[in-house]
């Protein structure tokens, strides 16, 4: 009996610390768990640029397709057609004036490459990766809103902050608000989000 | 002199310990001097240190920043490895470059300047030439303004709009593009692009890493260490990515490593041949003393250089075989004459000393003359050989007779065998035939006319350099224009003014700073032109505003642009260019420094505060445009491969060839004074003449230009030839087969030594080997066969 009691006590002591110190999952842990089975994503977006140069916001729309870890297709469809692809390090830029596409560059300009990499970073919501380049602040958990401020002084001259809103399901993305150094604001609103859609083989290869 | 030798022999016969102490003293002094010796490998030692153009040109080139640049090109052999894979590999290699060997490593553009295009726009008024004015005129038509603004709106709607808004507000008409063209004049590599964040070619198959290195071009040890560092880096490359590394230091390393390999190969070959000669002719314990003589002489000569010059030229010691070859002749001659058992040793020594003194004195006199040479390397060579020969002469006449008993075989005592008339005819006919061939060859003789040919240029470096030029679009055969002055504006002004003299087709190929940084005078004219232009086009701002509003732009969207048009232009300075982010490019063209060495030559003072370098095509018209008068007038100096080649040929002919002629005349005088007989003089000089003729003939027939080293080899042919002539004359006069044998053995040792140099890859060693080998092939048979065929004991003494 004594042995049984002692065994019970030892068992209780072993279990007790684990249960008493356990925490609730952080937002980023929840995002990670929610997106564990997300390999690719497709969405339409509306980009509204409130620039000092224009009286009214400049509105364009298009489609975003991404596949983890480093594939991104960003395509404007209205009012004019253009886009770029980040393809596992390679890239492509194109424009179109009608039916035909014309490839502007067979890789991305330095700026677009930086932007495309940043977009992937923002959309993937990986705390560790984001913390390398940004100071991360959680503005709200319901709905989840995260604010990023660049640690790099050069980058900070271009982009003051990025605010990312996620859907309640934590899968995909709802909105990105980019505040520029000159206080211009670009709002990207995503809709028609498809998780793990069937993607054509040429999605990240051709315009 | 003969009596002194004889008396000294008798005196020291009782005091041999004193002689041993004397030898030990020489060894000790030499060792102490050599211990403190420092060596330097620098081609400058072989060029005149007077105010020659070649020397100052080389000084100026040494000061160019590109001398310290390392350019590494990585090439993706497969398409799979091009683009991003190559970019990642490039970054990996660049990060792994050891800062001990590489500084300022660049493989990607400097940090993004958010106001780059605005800064370029701000520079436009000072660059506003008539040509740019014409182009801007086309950009401000009503139709063109509408098209440009439409495109700007479209760009602002995309992701790029994030960074473009302030640039477009400041420059809606893209006027900065005109300044961008001027910026392109800075691009030494026309095919360079920025792909995947690194410097690449358009096809993504080649990437570029540029770095500076603290390794001096003249520091051979550090250059070899740098070469090892290249190998370490390139081992990190994955299969399918191949490197091409270009730097002046790689040529230094290649030269050092080639010489090292050559010395190994030629030494082994020469040792085998000398061993065979020793087995056949010198099977005696006295061989130790025969070999000790050149060793001690070499040490004494080297010690003299070590005392006189710090640092000394390593090349001087490359001429060691010259000394060894000549000193061993003294020993062999002594060995064979002392071996003759016809008279007492004292009498035999008297006989031996006559030709040894004559050959020694003439050769020492000839080489001593080189002390007056304007070439520092030749002055060191003169000290080396003069001291070495003097030591050898003293040891041969006063020390070694006490330790050498002479050749123990009967050959030393035999007389020369008389030549039959038929044998004489055959020998003379063959000699005449060689004479004619030699003359024929000499008619095609020419001097080296390219400075680069002085060293080894391995195929992998030459081909690599060609490939790099092709890949990155760098000009071939470029000439460098150096402008030195007290201020940046002075050098820019002088460069600008002198470049204006070029024909248009040459002027458009110039790579330089002046298009982006004109001199202040030109900037002022351009600024005035700019103000006048906008005064004549006052409606442009209104048109931009109106058409912008039609497209949805705000009323004050382009206020920064309107303000810019009204602002008083400011001058472009170096600081502007550095802020722009092109500082590293500027630093390859503009040197602002306090030099460690002041060189004032030909009126060009490179010690001044600022030197500006421009790259020009090395064409006849460019070289003609920069005459000495123009260079003096504008304070500039054009240095091109073709000019350096001409200067080199001039140095070779005027300095080296002149000294050979002077030395030859001095030898003639010495021989004439000593012999006082025309026949004996002819006999003594004929082998040297024949040797030089053969040497020239061989170089002419092989179409090989005479280099610094082959001309130095000619000095040796002259020295050896005179030695053979003097000994052969002595042999004929004394009817001594032993003396003749001495010529044969010493000639064979020299042929073995210099013949082995024909296996060398380094042009210096090969040229030296070819010149001396071919020269001795003429001089030795002439002494052994032609002289006895021409003269007899009676005829030469009459």
From TrEMBL, chain B:
Signal peptide: none annotated. It comes from the Bacteria. InterPro entries: Mycobact_MmpL (IPR050545), SecD_SecF_C (IPR048634), SSD (IPR000731). Keywords: Membrane, Transmembrane, Transmembrane helix. SUPFAM superfamilies: Multidrug efflux transporter AcrB transmembrane domain. Gene3D superfamilies: Multidrug efflux transporter AcrB transmembrane domain. The chain crosses the membrane at residues 265-282, 289-309, 315-336, 356-375, 381-404, 425-443, 656-674, 681-702, 708-730, 742-760, 772-791. GO terms for cellular component: plasma membrane. Residues 319-406 form the SSD domain. This is SSD domain-containing protein. It comes from Halodesulfovibrio spirochaetisodalis. The lineage of its organism: Bacteria, Pseudomonadati, Thermodesulfobacteriota, Desulfovibrionia, Desulfovibrionales.
